[in-house]
Amino acid sequence: MVTGVSDNSAPAAEPLVLVEADGPVLTVTLNRPEKRNATNAEVLCRLYDAWVRLDEDDDLRVAILTGKGSVFCAGMDLGEIARLNQGAKDNEWITRLVESPDISLKAYLKTYRPTKPIILAAEGVARAGGTEILQGTDIRVAGESTVFGVTEVQRGLFPMAGSAVRLRRQMGYAVAAEMLLAGDDITAPRAHELGLINHVVPDGQALAKARQIAERIAANGPVAVRNILAVLRQTETMPEEEAFEIEMPLGYATMATEDAKEGPRAFLEKRAPVFQGR
């Protein structure tokens, strides 16, 4: 730097969703802490792009979704809803959403779910869209003080990202009905008790726990992970006989892979398997 010359250029603003790959693990971080990580057009577009990247990048095997700061996500930015309803095209992100409105539901994991697992790491508050997107993830970790709620009804709104259907399938009907119709929160321990989340950890440790789980998943056979996940999702509400019709072809396809030979071979040779995804 030349002495006496000041640099008045402002630092570039960070994107509102941070997407970082660390080996096979993709970490997706909501980065709007000053707005309690409420989603707006940019957040939704970047979330969708992250899910597509997870699907299309063969080097990625699992993702973690988390939020920067003390709140995971307080839902949709209500001011943004008004702008979208008016068809505003104030910036590239709003323009993209107005022209492709399906992106918002894909971002929330309602109408698009990657073929690879997503782990949620939540701290603080996960309300409205924060609990809606939770239901599209596969494994969920929360700090012990975290609260969850589908609060749209309190504003006369409908939870459009899937909770009216999914929540009762992921927990008891009566509890889901109370959450949806009263809009009240439940605590992380209660959510764990009801099976909505997998792990309750000390505050500030959700991301670390999620990374441990992600590393375990990433070490497994990627074809096996993908096909088991597909069966879990596709057969959720099916009778057992119908579900087996989906399970068996995916099972046979997995067992015919090179990875299915490598796993037992590595066990017999007392070494870690080297899976190639084929």
Automatic annotation (TrEMBL):
InterPro entries for this protein: ClpP/crotonase-like_dom_sf, Enoyl-CoA_hydra/iso, Enoyl-CoA_hydra_C
Pfam family, one: ECH_1
GO MF annotations in UniProt: catalytic activity
UniProt cross-references to SUPFAM superfamilies, sorted A to Z: ClpP/crotonase
Family according to the record: Belongs to the enoyl-CoA hydratase/isomerase family.
Protein name, as recorded: Crotonase/enoyl-CoA hydratase family protein
